Amino acid sequence: MRITRTGGGRGRRAAALTTTVLTASALLLSGCSSDDGDSDASDSNGNITLKLADFGQFGYKEAGLFEQYHKLHPNITVKEETTAEEQQYYPKFLQQLNSNSGLGDVTGIEVGRIKEIVDTQADKFADLSKTINVSDWVSWKEKQATAKDGTVIGAGTDIGPMSLCYRKDLFQKAGLPTDREAVAKAISGGWEDYLKLGEQYKAKAPSGTYFMDSASAMYNAVVSSSAQQYYDADGKPVYKDSQAVKQGWDLAAETASKKLSAGLPQFGVPWQTALRKGQIASMVCPAWMAAQISTYSGDAYKGKWDISRAPGTTAANWGGSFLAVPKGGKHVKEATELVKWLTAPEQQAAVFKAVGVFPSNKGAYELASVKSAKLPYFSDAPIGEIYADEAKSIPEAVLGAKDGVIKDTISNQINNMETRGTSPDKAWKAATESVDKALG
Questions:
Q1: How far is CA 57 from the centre of its chain?
Q2: Does the chain have fewer CB atoms within 10 Å around its N or its C terminus?
Q3: What is the C-alpha radius of gyration for the chain, rounded to an integer number of angstroms?
Q4: Is 316 helix (H, G, I), strand (E, B) or coil?
Q5: What is the pLDDT of residue 73?
Q6: Are 174 and 378 in contact (CB under 8 A)?
Q7: How are strands ordered across the β-sheet holding 76-83?
């Protein structure tokens, strides 16, 4: 969604919104919110209002799940409060945890933050291992939310199996293949092939268009395909020596030097505008990204986008989130039951159908609505098949406490290479200095 779902995630985000009264298209627009004091609200008749605090686009409103839950539980009303930019959501979330004030009854946690929460704040959350069946999720998903003592603080929502979204009409004008299988073949050698395709596109690019949105997005996709990213299994930061980071950085630097991208950090207003104007020809596309593209590109480009398998043969996961229940809430039992229901196969399948975020609950993969799913906006791309195949071979990544910080910092310096012309050496030096300071 979420745009991840930090730079992953679900980087799915832009300002604070209360979504219970918004349409799907309005969900991602800028707005504002504040704690209105009605979290954990109940009345003398036993009616309860549960606040679900999250970021980006989890898809529950669009799938009609809150209304459905209210029909099943007439005394419970769910109010969703969404902060579109996860980088704004997380600091506030930490403040609320530390003060035990203002928290939702249910809270979203992005995958880039889950390790830090598990290591430093696990005792502030209800143990969901007694409520959910951990084995129902892809194996690595719930491990990410499991503390050393075996408590599980988060139920998996979505994952972000990787694909490539591209504009068929722009590819055709530039003389590139347009059939999704032909595109997949053209980039089957990996991300290096993707850049070669970008050079071909640039040579005949329609005026005012760019091969990709940003090098930083591609960087995150490259790193996401590796089991070892920023930390080793002992919890030691190894990002300076990580082969995945080096490969991603080098490819990003090449992209910047050859001007193959628009240099637009994802989810910002300029990025949204470029999509609306039809200026982006391709984009790395974790499952949750399809909702972002269709929202911002609008009806004018329906059927002009398509989805191909990601470059290379190595599966990748970028983003994904969890739902957790703070212990300090007044309705922990009810909140826990809501989390169990929202993350069950049928509800995850409904969210996938509504907004395209891919389930982490394996049971959903066997449902017809997932297995045979296609996206009309993306030329009826068989996303159920594409994402399910990808999900089966995603490596179990080692997570670290400051994954999100490292990812965001490096991404910012890649943006500087693109927009300011900062040399790769200077950008890397600035990134490592900032990361080392943050790590202490």
A1: 9
A2: C
A3: 21
A4: coil
A5: 98
A6: no
A7: 16-18, 76-83, 48-55, 106-110, 317-324, 155-161, 358-359
**Sequence letter at residue 371:** K
| Distance separating alpha carbons of residues 405 and 393, to the nearest angstrom | 27
Phi and psi angles of residue 241, each rounded to the nearest 5 degrees, phi first: -110, 0
Q: Helix or strand or coil: residue 295?
A: helix
Write down the pTM of the prediction: 0.79
10 Å Cβ neighbour count for 227?
Answer: 12
End-to-end CA distance of the chain: 31
pLDDT 10s digits, 215-243: 999 999 999 988 899 999 898 999 999 99
Token pair listed for 417: 């290479």
Q: What are phi and psi of 96, to 5 degrees?
A: -65, -40
Nearest to 370 by CA among 287, 272, 280: 287
Please state the φ and ψ torsions of residue 178, each to the nearest 5 degrees.
-120, -25
Q: Supply 15's token pair.
A: 């300002």
Adjacent-strand bridge partners of 163 = 309
Average confidence (pLDDT) over 415-428: 96
* Backbone conformation region of residue 211, classed left if phi is above 0, alpha if psi is from -120 to 50, else beta: alpha
Measure Cα distances from 135 to 112, 131, 132, 139, 346 in Å. Answer: 22, 12, 9, 7, 16
254 sits in which H/E element = helix 243-258
